[in-house]
Amino acid sequence: MKIGIIGSGAMGTGIAQVALMGNDHVALFDTNEEALQRAKISLDAQFSKLVEKGKITEERKTVLVSQVSFVRYMNDLADCDWVIEAIVEDLAVKKAVFAELDALLPKTSILATNTSSLSVTAIASACKHPERVWGIHFFNPAFLMPLVEIIPALQTEKNRLEEIQTKISDWGKTPVVTKDLPGFIVNRLARPFYSEALRIYDEGMATYFEIDEAMKSLGFKMGPFELMDLIGNDVNYAVTESVFAANYFNPRYTPSTTQKRHVEAGWLGRKTKRGFYSYEEGATNASESLNILSQEEIGKRILCMLINEAYEALRTGLASAEDLDLAMTKGVNYPKGLIAWGKELGLDQVAWEMTKLDSRYGEDRYRLSPNLKDSL
Ligand SMILES: NC(=O)c1ccc[n+]([C@@H]2O[C@H](COP(=O)([O-])OP(=O)(O)OC[C@H]3O[C@@H](n4cnc5c(N)ncnc54)[C@H](O)[C@@H]3O)[C@@H](O)[C@H]2O)c1
Fold first, then answer.
1. Is 173 found in the same domain as 224?
2. Which of 150, 177, 204 is the last residue of a domain?
């Protein structure tokens, strides 16, 4: 098959590598010549690394490199079977690209967007044949991260789902199917991991360090503050803000002013050497404890918020319980899926914790999911 990829930035280049390794031909298109050159160098370096590690032979690298073309015009994608768009996250720009693609490619082709936060349905509406438009959402770095969210738009003809799932599986990835709702699965279900941690901190109930330690003791590889510093406070805050706005300002997703101030200060995390922690050479971050809440109390509060969110997602049919759990374990390395974790912990325990928070704060943010209540 021939896969066209639009946008040769971080995601487009990663997706190109995935498709090439899956024995497909790739045409990588970008309007920016420098970005194309960078992609060419980066792909070559990635394949060389695989040769060095003994994962592929030099001959295989030669074949892989010969199967990708770097193109400057959208017309060069006309003979592609699929096109995956990975350009700037801007609805107007994406719609213009899809309108052009729609006119260029036969209606049997698949047109996909890698958008993280926009409506696939809105993007598809730019096409005369929106029934062949899908969201195919990879995670960064695409070559390493196993999860791919598949999102049919409202207009999409679902009879090609199996074909898409098969291709994603052939590329060695784990596909999950989700509705076209803000944040899809991972970016939505993970919100409480950050926002409840920030809330506990904002209330002066625990330090960053205590909260991070509490979550790591539950099996998470990184604590929320370490992870926000790794992702970048600017990126993480923007996702929270967009999920909050797209959910009509549902208080469950309220962003944190503390995080906003970090963005305003330019304390973005590792990339600026300062976020919640310092990454300057020789920096020793204080590992202070307030000892107001126990590790168990902190962990339980954040975990129960996560589990409650997963049950809320089930209520609106976002995805199957199995796909919700796969998404969190494969997409963000959670030690367990949230639905399974809820059952293991005991849903009565989760309900008790949520009811306790609800009665303390009286905010809709802590409302027990009716779906969880029904499952008791
Ligand atoms: N970076 C991530 O962690 C991540 C993860 C999942 C999904 N996404 C989504 O993937 C998409 C791309 O993100 P990225 O981080 O790779 O961006 P990026 O800025 O690294 O790359 C975007 C590329 O698109 C090119 N481009 C812009 N407009 C174009 C056009 N009209 N035609 C052709 N090329 C054009 C730019 O020159 C640039 O090279 C976005 O929709 C983003 O939300 C990003």
1. no
2. 177
Nearest CA to ligand 1 atom 39: 9
For residue 133, give the CATH number of its domain. 3.40.50.720
CA 86 to centroid of ligand 1, rounded, Å: 5
Q: Which residues contact 279 (CB under 8 A, 6 or more apart)?
A: 229, 269, 270, 273
Which one of the listed residues 8, 114, 187, 236 is annotated catalytic?
187
Ligand 1 center to 326 CA (angstroms)? 25
Q: Which of 96, 77, 75, 79 is nearest to 87 (CA)?
A: 96
Q: Residue of the nearest CA to atom 11 in ligand 1?
A: 86
Both 150 and 39 in one domain: the answer is yes
- Under DSSP, the state recorded for 269 is B
What tens digit of pLDDT does each residue of 239-288 get? 999 999 999 999 999 999 999 999 999 999 999 999 999 999 988 887 88
Question: Can 247 be counted among the known catalytic residues?
Answer: no
pLDDT at 142: 95
Atom of ligand 1 nearest to the CA of 96: 31
Which residues form the domain of 163?
Answer: 2-177
Q: Mind listing the pLDDT tens digit for each residue in 319-368?
A: 999 999 999 999 999 999 999 999 999 999 999 999 999 999 999 999 99
Q: Given strand 110-113, what is the order of strands in its sheet? A: 68-71, 25-29, 2-6, 82-85, 110-113, 133-138, 147-152, 174-177
Q: How many domains does the chain have?
A: 2
Task: Return the residue whose CA atom lies nearest to atom 7 of ligand 1.
Answer: 116
How far apart, in whole angstroms, are the C-alpha atoms of residue 267 and residue 254? 20
Residue 162 sits in the same domain as residue 306: no
Q: What is the pLDDT of residues 25-70, one digit of tens each?
A: 999 999 999 999 999 999 999 999 999 999 999 999 999 999 999 9
pLDDT of 129: 98
> Is there a single domain that holds both residue 212 and residue 256?
yes
137 catalytic? Reply is: yes
The closest residue, in CA terms, to atom 38 on ligand 1 is 9
- Residue 236 designated active-site: no
Q: Would 182 be classed as within a structural domain? A: no
